[in-house]
Amino acid sequence: MTRIPTATRSSPRSSVHDQSQRSQLSNSEEVGNATVPPSQFLSRFQSLPISLALMREFLSVALICDALDSIGLGLQSPRLEFKQLTVRSNLLIGRAKTTLWADMAHVDPEPYKLELLAIDSAQLDDIIVCAAHGSLRSGIWGELLSSAARNRGCVGVIVDGAVRDVAKMREMNFSVYARGTSPYDSRNRQRVIDYDVAIEIGGVPIQPGDLIAADEDGLVVIPQSVESEVIQRAWDKTHAENKVRDAVRGGMTATEAFATFGVL
Question: Top-level CATH class of 60-224?
Answer without folding.
Answer: alpha beta
